[in-house]
Write a structure and sequence with these properties.
The protein has about 200 residues and is α/β, with parallel strands linked by helices. It contains 8 helices and 5 strands; from the N terminus they run αβαβααβααβαβα. The chain has a single domain, classed as Flavodoxin domain (Rossmann fold), CATH 3.40.50. The structure holds flavin mononucleotide.
């Protein structure tokens, strides 16, 4: 029997990782750092990747259906919500666009509004039962991680309604001048190891 069962924690093999991937590029800086993280995970860990540009989610239009029921009026993210609610680890991996998330990823984040409504309008505590640990990976073109820090600031309040705690941010910067990725890649690998120690 898995020792964790006795402690009512998920076993290693039951742990689920959900990646919310915000870059349009399959092999850009964000993808390379994310890949190092995934390669650092134990082999048997299931990893789901939600590709924001491929899925192009509808933006939240503040219709407020979620103020009255546990749902989103749009059905395009139904599968995503299921994965989100059952995940143990969330990885937000995104380039910085104009000091923010690229539009498709921003749309996903805004669509978390149903959990904000659950918590603060319908008084559901917690809005998502399964607790999560979160990792933020950002890629910045500029020579500073200021953009990545802005993303972190935007993400943190959303994490509170997802029952998730940010355990680490990895901000790669200097992409415009092709700065080396090694430090960010090492940081991603180390974080993967630490999560499953
Ligand atoms: C529309 C757009 C806006 C951008 N805005 C910023 C920015 O505000 N700050 C910054 O540091 N880099 C900015 N960049 C540069 C990207 O963050 C950088 O190229 C990043 O490494 C791209 O990551 P990716 O290849 O993984 O998609 C911008 C790039 C684009 C296309």
């Amino acid at each position: 029997m898995c020792a964790a069962i006795a402690k009512k924690e998920p076993c290693l093999t039951d742990m689920r990782v959900l990646v919310i991937f915000g870059s349009p590029k399959k092999n850009g800086e964000t993808a390379q750092i994310l890949d190092a993280f995934i390669r650092g995970l134990p082999d048997n860990i299931p990893v789901d990747i939600f590709d924001c540009f491929e899925r192009s989610p509808l933006p939240c239009n503040d219709c407020r259906s979620c103020y009255h029921s546990d749902l989103c009026a749009f059905s395009d993210l139904d599968d995503f919500y299921k994965k989100l609610e059952t995940a143990d680890i969330l990885v937000f991996a995104s380039p910085v666009y104009n000091l923010s998330f690229p539009a498709p990823m921003k749309a996903v984040l805004d669509r978390m509004q149903r959990y904000w409504a659950a918590r603060f309008i319908r008084q559901v505590r917690p809005p998502i039962k399964r607790p999560k640990r979160a990792l933020l990976i950002t890629a910045n073109g500029s020579q500073s991680q200021e953009g990545g820090e802005m993303l972190e600031r935007q993400l943190k309040p959303i994490l509170t309604v997802l029952n998730a705690k940010l355990i680490k941010s990895i901000h790669y910067y200097g992409a415009d001048k092709k700065s080396p990725l090694e430090t960010a890649i090492k940081g991603a690998q180390n974080t993967a190891h630490l999560l499953f120690k």
